[in-house]
Amino acid sequence: MTYLVADTLPTEPAGLRFRKALEAGGILQIPGTHNGQAALQATKAGFPALYLSGAAMTASMGLPDLGVITVDEVCFFVRQVARASGLPVLVDGDTGYGEALNVMHMVRSFEDAGAAAVHIEDQLLPKKCGHLNDKKIADAHDMAAKVAAARKARRHLYIIARTDAAASEGMDGAVARAKMYLEAGADAIFPEAMNTAEMFREFARRVDAPLLANMTEFGRTPFFTAAEFEAMGYKMVIWPVSSLRVANKAQEDLYAAIKRDGGTHNMVDRMQTRAELYATIGYHAYEALDASIVTTIIPQAMMQRGG
């Protein structure tokens, strides 16, 4: 059925559904879904939760991932992904869009938009992708205050504190920060840009909390599978920008073909058909719903008078 029918929608808060998915056993696999169509496809593939990457959202807007996106713009993406999938959605909250009060506003806005979880990072603006060089790291106490603010504002939102400190402060610094963020109220920790299996294992040995791993392509982290991350002590793994990368590459090939060939005739075999699109978005279910509402129903009182 469609998202328009209230009695088919989830009744349990998204944050609680995220916790249940996390506690179901095994590692929680969370693919990035940069729009509602990607969310539908990931849901059909059988994933129990979805991810919204700040890098994917900004790139889809034609912007760099430097913290320029706003809370309201992110909420537009949250609404479409949560609505399309009906699944709990983990959202990239960048640096929280400001200080403590801004973080609280972000939490309330994300929950209202349908988010299940958020991660906040300990960088300073302008922030960078976690796998780039020369990141500017916030004071640990300032970041802990943001975590505490998020905790105070949330109803059910699952709060993940991300630390980018390993590159500049080493493993000891990253671990110390993680423990401070947990004390401030974080539910889980996201150690960013670990570049060896031993780093992942050491962090997991030293931090007693649910941990999130980032399996982004073209970054500092070597390719690991979900099972390998689980064996290293991680409870969640994201593939943040993969869907956007594949879609963008396909679009690039399409536009080159139109320019070269004067049409799309050489690309049709690489396209989602109209029937496949309609099946994915539930087109006919919406049509049937509309027809059921607009069909004329004769009032009972009139029928009793003989029509």
Q: Helix amount, in percent?
A: 40-55%
Q: Order of strands across the widest beta sheet?
A: 2-3-4-5-6
- Give the overall pLDDT as a whole number: 91
Q: Let me know the CATH homologous superfamily of the largest domain.
A: Phosphoenolpyruvate-binding domains
How many structural units, i.e. domains?
A: 2
The radius of gyration over CA amounts to: 22 Å
Distance between the termini: 34 Å
Text of the CATH class of the largest domain: Alpha Beta
Silhouette:
globular
Structural category is alpha/beta
Number of strands: 8
Low-confidence spans: pLDDT under 50, at least 5 residues? 302-307
Q: What is the name of the CATH architecture of the largest domain?
A: Alpha-Beta Barrel
What oligomeric assembly is this protein in? single chain
By CATH, the topology of the largest domain is TIM Barrel
Word description of this protein:
The chain is α/β, with parallel strands linked by helices and 307 residues long. It folds into 2 domains: 6-240, Alpha-Beta Barrel (TIM Barrel); 241-271. Helix content is 49%, strand content 11%. Helix 4 packs parallel to helix 5 (100-113) and helix 6 (140-153) packs parallel to helix 7. The two termini are 34 Å apart.
